[in-house]
Amino acid sequence: MTELEEVHRQVSTCRDCGLCERRTHAVPGEGPENAEIMFVGEGPGFNEDQQARPFVGPAGRFLDELLALAGLRREEVFITNVIKCRPPENRDPLPDEVEACRKYLTRQIELIRPGLIVTLGRFSLSWFLPKESIGRVHGQPRAVGGLNILPMYHPAAALHAANMRQVIQEDFRRLPEVLARVRQGSVSTFREPVSADAVEQGRLF
Q1: Tens-digit pLDDT profile for residues 100-128
Q2: Which of 9, 15, 44, 141 has the fewest CB atoms within 10 Å, i.e. is most exposed?
Q3: What is the bridge-based pairing of β-strands 142-144 and 116-120?
């Protein structure tokens, strides 16, 4: 058993918060242990809880489309969530639930060592950048504590607001450019916020 598999075993039997009482399955995450990109969502939904896999419902199908836009396949990336068990009725995670799962995501990052972490939605963003707003920083890469972070809207946002679909698609179309900068070691130049005008005019880099 690899160290990452051991983390996932611990997740599957975890009882560190009340979410364990109602789950069908914990959802540790999936993907290659040497993945260059890690996607971090909020938490499992109904389908994920049933199948013990991340992003397998409607939002997951849209994520697959978005990955294709970026020239990626699900098998190439690691996908997980901030919390590993489904909250009742898909409510927002509570602070103590996020904290109970913090050690698992931290260890996954340490073991996989992704070149780029794509946060999906506000809860994932706040895990890494607690003072930032997803509306202000989506699509803008940041270097944070030795990690390269690319904030994105959650794919589910497009399911609830049709006008979000194009915004999310455009952010994903820029992902290959961000990844190229990661490989060159130059994401650190984006420690300061990129201006809204620059993003609007396509001058992200």
Answers
A1: 999 999 999 999 999 999 999 999 999 99
A2: 15
A3: unpaired
Q: pLDDT value at position 186?
A: 73
Alpha helices per DSSP H over the chain: 3-12, 46-51, 58-69, 95-112, 122-128, 134-137, 156-160, 164-173, 175-184, 196-200
Cα angle, residue 84 at apex, residues 79 and 87 outer, rounded to 5°? 125
Provide the CA 148 distance to its chain's centre, in angstroms: 12
- So what's the pLDDT on residue 188? 53
Query: Do residues 138 and 131 lie in contact, with contact meaning Cβ atoms separated by under 8 Å?
Result: no
Residue with token string 């396949």: 73
- Please name the residues in contact with 23: beta carbons below 8 A apart, sequence gap of 6 or more: 49, 85, 86
Compute the residue count for the chain. 205
**Greatest C-alpha distance within the chain:** 49
Structure tokens at 75: 């098998």
Residues 6+ positions from 176 with CB-CB distance below 8 Å: 70, 71
Q: Give the C-alpha separation, 95 to 101, whole Å.
A: 10
- For residue 116, give the H/E element and its range: strand 116-120
Kindly indicate the confidence band of residue 199, based on its pLDDT and cuts at 50, 70 and 90: very low
